[in-house]
Amino acid sequence: MIARRLPRSFLLTLCLAVALSSGALAQSPYPNRPVKILVGFTPGTAPDLAARILADRFSEVWGTPFVVEDVPGAGSNVATERVAKAAADGATLLMGGNPSLVINPSLYDKLPFDPVKDFAPISQVFIAANVLAVPPELPVKSVAELVALARAQPGKLSYAHAGVGTSQHLAAELFKYMAHLDIAAVPYRGSTALMPDLLAGRVNMSFANIVNVLPLAREGKLRALAITSRKRSGLAPDLPTMAESGFPGFEAVPWFGLLAPAGTPQEVIDKLHDETVKVLALPEVRKKFDELGLEPVGNTPAEFAAVIKKETPEWAKVIKDAGIRLGN
Question: Which of 3.30.70.100, 3.40.50.1010, 3.40.190.10, 3.30.300.10 is the CATH number of 130-227?
Fold first, then answer.
C-alpha cells in the first residue's frame, strides 16, 4: 500500500494550529493553580488578618484558591526566606513588612535573602500602630508614671515583644534608650503569644499591636498609655502619642505589603497590584480595616520599593543609636 502524501498547505495549517494551541496552554491566565500567601507571624495578628481579607477576595474574583500560611520565626525571616527562594511564578507570595525588609538587615550579620534584590513589590497593604500597654494592676496611668516607676526599680520591670526585629521590639528598645531605662526584654513568637502573660501581669508592659490591645483596653483588661504613631488614632482619639508623652520624634509604626519573588512576570505583578487596590477600596474592606485599626495604603510597586529604600537607612540609624543588638 502506497502512503498518500499530504498537501504542503495542510501540513502548514496543522503545524500552525498545534503551535497556537501550545502557546495558549503555556499562556493560560494567572492564577491557574492555588496560590499561597505566607505571613511571618502568628494567626490573629494584623498581617495575618489583612492577608486573609485579600486571599478571600482574590479567591472569589479569580475562582482560584488563595491560602494564607502563617510561618512565624526569626522576626519573620523564615517566611521571607521561603518566598525569596520560591519559584517566580506568582504561586507563592509574601505579606511582608518592615521587620524583615527594613529592620532585620541592620540586626543580622547575614540574612538568607536580600530585601531588595530577591523581591518584586506589589503594593503596601496597610500601616498600623503599636500601643504601649500595661496590666491594670501596674500602678501607673501615664507614660511619665511608668518611666518614674522603672527608674525607681532598675532592672526589675520587663517588657514583652513579638520577636527580635519587630517594630514592637524596636519601639521598646527605643523607649529604653530615650528614657534611659533598665527594663528586661522577654521575647515571644508573635503578638498574640505574649498576651496571656501581659494580661496576667507576668510581664509589666508591651508595645503591642493596636489590633490586639484596643479590645482588651476597652474591657479594662489592659491599660493603654500611648500610641507609637506620629498622630493620634481615630479609634482611640483620647490616647496620646509617645511624642506627646514626652518623647519628641518617637515613631515606631509597622507596615505590611504584598510581594512576590524577584523575576515574577510583570503581567502577574500588575494583575495582583490592580486587584489589591480594588480590594482595599471596597467600603466593607475599609470598614473592616478601620475596626482593626489599620490604615489601608494600596500604592504602586515603585512607590512601595521607594518606601523600603527610604526607611532602611533610617531604621539603621535608630538601631545604631539605641545600641540594639540581635538577641536583645
Answer: 3.40.190.10
